[in-house]
Amino acid sequence: EVQLVESGGGLVQAGGSLRLSCVASGFTLDDYGIGWFRQVPGKEREGVAHITTVNGRTSYGYSVKGRCTISSDSSKTTVYLEIDSLTPEDTAVYYCAAVDLSRAHIPLAPDWYNYWGQGTQVTVSS
Q1: Cβ 20 vs Cβ 35: under 8 Å
Q2: pLDDT digits over 83-117, tens only?
């Protein structure tokens, strides 16, 4: 069973930092690209970051470049997303997603992803 479980969301003051976790099970992480996305009510999901653990390549959405880091642990079972200098615009539900690398995909385009976690709420107060 393919499963992705996010955690680490919460209420954070503007200017603070947050580290989200995505625990993957039921598949080999190296066979997938892992992306972090976020969504607010009434808006489409936005790509935040992406990592291909097999080679360590990463990509970031323009809105978080310079203050976001995606990484995986040594066992390659967990993917992390660290966001610094949070602003109220970062408030959203953050989702972890996986896409099979056997198919072509756009790293930060949500429609290409096969599997999704349930999301974790991040709220940034001003």
Answers
A1: no
A2: 999 999 999 999 999 999 888 788 999 999 999 99
